[in-house]
Here is the input.
Amino acid sequence: MLGVMDHHNHQAAGPTAAGSAISVLVADDDASIRRLVAKRLESAGYVALQARNGQEAADMAREHRPGFVVSDWNMPKLDGLGFARSLVDTFGDAAPPVILLTAREFEVREEMLAGLSIKQVLCKPFSARKLVDAVEAILAEGAADGPSLREAA
Amino acid sequence: MNDGTSENRVVLAELADAATELGVALAMIGDEPGLRVLAPADGPSELLAALARADGSAGVYATAMPCPSPIADASLIAFVLCPAVFASEVFAEACAAAEIDPERAAETLDRFVVTSGADAPRLLRGFEMLVERSGFAAEAELAADELADSLGKAFERADVTLTLAAAMHDPSDPLSFISAACEELRQALQLDWAGVVFHARDVLPKALRMSPKFAACSGVEPREAERAATAVLAAADLESGPSVGAFAPPFAAQHGVALVQPLEIDRVAVGALVAGRNDADLMSIDSYHLTLAESVCAFLGPFIDNLRLRESEQRAFFATLEALSSTLDAKDSYTRGHSERVAHLAVAIAEQLKLERADLDRIWIAGRLHDVGKIGVPESVLLKPGGLTDAEFEQIKRHPTIGFEILRGVPGVEPMLPAVLHHHERWDGRGYPAGLAGENIPVDARIMAVADTFDAMSSKRSYRDSLPREVVLAELERSRGSQLDAHMVDAFMRVDLSQYDRMAANAVAQTKGEIAEDERSKDDGPAEPDDASASRHRDADRPDDVKRAA
Here is the structure.
């Protein structure tokens, strides 16, 4: 059991693959959720950037080129899908992977995600622990797939 | 210094920057001995520390204020200097002590010098307000963190609940559901181990009754967990509800803390959910942990209760089937135990074929029911000693269809119907009722045919004695690919028949007793007609090949 715990700690130190921590842009108009996600990501070793709406997120993404994005769907000014679209417009194939958060999972349809870099849709309420696990899994998968998202970004 | 978190360090650094900007030097007194100079960050700190203490003399103006509590449990000293300080004795001594040239020191400290003592209070008051504001900001930050934290806990709890709700609909493997629930809890609470202990075994569903004492656990070896749980339970009072406690070292050389949440079925405590951490900090388990454990138990209780209910329904179902098949036994004492033996053999064949547990259950029931249709065949035909006429044989041949008709309205029996209807089909298509051939015959029916044929030949009938084992096996071999599916015969040949032989011996012993009784009562009634002429259709319930052997 201690082995498992140690392993987990390794994982927490994992995201500093190339020497510098991977930055994750967290976009949500709900300050508590934004903070919750950002804090959990930070304790897992990531650098968290926070944006309060889709437009701010799109601007920050252009400036900071985050390695990963966690975004709410329903946000003022620009929603999560619009923001995800802006990522593809800006970065093309190198758009960072996105986890989309939504309280209305049933409204998400496959065709809405077409052409976007959304890897997973998580329904609120979600487990922050599982969200961090998912970020790690998606990043690991991307790294295994060859041209890493980090390199691309 | 009590500024442990990185955030607090950031806030302090920001305050120091603001002080430098404003032209104020800053020092801190905390639980460490002495002064710590924060601003200027690159200044001659020893000299500055000496000046900070020299308030009220020689041109040093200082003010002390509590550091905002969310940042650090300490006091801050902000101070500015007047030009007069550089001519003072304090300054000269401090420079000497720090081995700094007084002229160079004065140059370095130039930015903290006010031209007039009258400016000092205004400047210091300005900085005080800045500290106050950063205190409010830090407090707001803290409150926001707490809000995010409790949101995270609420989300975590909702997630555990939803995960369990989604998983609990499959009762096929209750232990792994319980284990999964424990693991979910362990992960959500970042505990080292979690498990369920049952103590009231007699009220548990059968599927759990045979489970180890520590029924399901995660994060730890079951034996270790059991020892831990025993220690925890010995100390806990389950009657009084959930509890948290420290307990004796359950794992080698380690103390731990654990929570105990009673697990109730129908308001009766049957065990407990026990989960813990391998450190001795009692405070590391709080009401959040207990609430989540309670949520998990709120799922486990009804889950186990449902399991119990399902089992009792299943028992009722089986009892009905037993009743149905014993009706036939009562009618035809020669076939007494036949359905049980066929069920046993069919399952044994299915095991050889490596079929799933659910398949074995279905095949066993089908075996018990396969001849139920004989209830609809007149006793005069069914029990007739000697041969059958064509018309009588046609009546016998109706029993699979009659069985199918009887059973098809019974809920839960649909999966067994193919075996009942088709167990007299032949691989070569010459069987009945449908004349199906080869793989068109349902698998269950092909298995049943082998088991049925073997038992029919091995049993004593009203018209013949049982056949020796080697004759029966030779017959089965001969029927491969004509009457019987060769694949099923091969599987049968690998079956260990010792259990079957015990079942057959029991049936013979019982039947002998009853037949003796029957013979006595027969003396009073009319004698059975002796129809020796019709020998053509004897062994009518078994195909031609077998008849020849008899």
Q: What stands out?
A: Chain A touches chain B through 17 residues (CB under 8 Å). Strands of chain A lie at 23-27, 47-51, 68-72, 98-102, 118-123. The CA atoms of residues 27 and 56 of chain A lie 8 Å apart. Chain A has a mean pLDDT of 81.
